[in-house]
């Protein structure tokens, strides 16, 4: 039976997801909570190989449906091999992206449809959902300014209009799932965002311990 807490951090390119995952894990560990941090795509040997295929800018022949299935193959392996066992041990699992990214990128921006993508994702994950999701929101133009000087991967190179649509769908999802998704302004200082995330996560943990 699942006993841990599943936290996901979402957002467009350059929003600061990896930084916030790291800061949250450090804060939890300081308070004695067992944690596991994952990234998507990736997180297992098989998933990392799929990540390399997906992000290689030379793989321009990948179609939206193939892209979706590769992302979900990576996720299915990660859930089976890492996330579920960690949750069953009572850990707090922090994932840099999860199914909301698939809905925004492939369901919305790639045009595959939110409902269809949602169904396939539920199959891949056994209908696993995060307990809470933090959406780091900022205009994609600002995100790419932060990434200046780095080499764009295949997803980052999809064009600014694509990434504007990704942001729109993320915000649509946040409206639909207000009980799960917390929208944070990614233009705020890193420390302020980290404090907001930590406050909500510790609140959830306190609620669970009091049950």
What does this protein look like?
- This protein has one domain: Rossmann fold, CATH 3.40.50.300.
- Helix 1 crosses helix 8.
- It has helices spanning 17-30, 45-55, 64-88, 99-109, 114-125, 140-146, 160-176, 190-209; strands at 5-11, 35-39, 92-96, 132-137, 181-185.
- The chain is of the alpha/beta class and 211 residues long.
- 55% of the residues lie in helices and 13% in strands.
- The chain is built from 8 helices and 5 strands.
- The model has no long low-confidence stretch (mean pLDDT 96).
- A 5-stranded parallel sheet has the order 2-3-1-4-5, with helices on both faces.
Task: For this entry, give a set of tags.
Rossmann fold, 13% strand, globular, 55% helix, single chain, 211 residues
The low-confidence parts are none
Number of helices: 8
Helix fraction, binned, reads 55-70%
- Identify the CATH architecture: 3-Layer(aba) Sandwich
* The CATH H-level homologous superfamily: P-loop containing nucleotide triphosphate hydrolases
As for the CATH topology, it is Rossmann fold
Largest sheet: 5 strands, parallel
Average per-residue pLDDT, rounded, comes to: 96
The Cα radius of gyration reads 16 Å
Shape: globular
Number of domains: 1
């Amino acid at each position: 039976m699942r006993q841990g807490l599943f936290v996901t951090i979402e957002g467009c390119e350059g929003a600061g997801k990896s930084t916030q995952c790291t800061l949250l894990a450090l804060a939890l560990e300081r308070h004695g909570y067992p944690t596991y941090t994952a990234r998507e795509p990736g997180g297992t040997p098989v998933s990392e190989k799929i990540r390399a295929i997906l992000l290689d800018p030379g793989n321009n022949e990948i179609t939206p449906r193939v892209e979706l299935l590769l992302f979900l193959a990576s996720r299915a392996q990660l859930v089976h091999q890492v996330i579920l066992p960690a949750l069953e041990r009572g850990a707090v699992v922090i994932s840099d992206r999860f199914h909301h990214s698939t809905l925004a990128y492939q369901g919305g921006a790639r045009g595959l449809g939110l409902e269809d993508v949602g169904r396939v994702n539920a199959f891949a994950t056994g209908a696993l959902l995060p307990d809470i999701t933090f959406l780091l929101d900022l205009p994609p133009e600002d995100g790419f300014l932060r990434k200046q000087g780095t080499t764009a991967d295949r997803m980052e190179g999809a064009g600014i209009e694509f990434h504007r649509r990704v942001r729109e769908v993320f915000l649509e999802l946040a409206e639909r799932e207000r009980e799960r998704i917390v929208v944070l302004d990614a233009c705020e200082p890193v420390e302020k965002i980290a404090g907001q995330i930590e406050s909500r996560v510790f609140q959830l943990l306190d609620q669970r311990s009091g049950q």
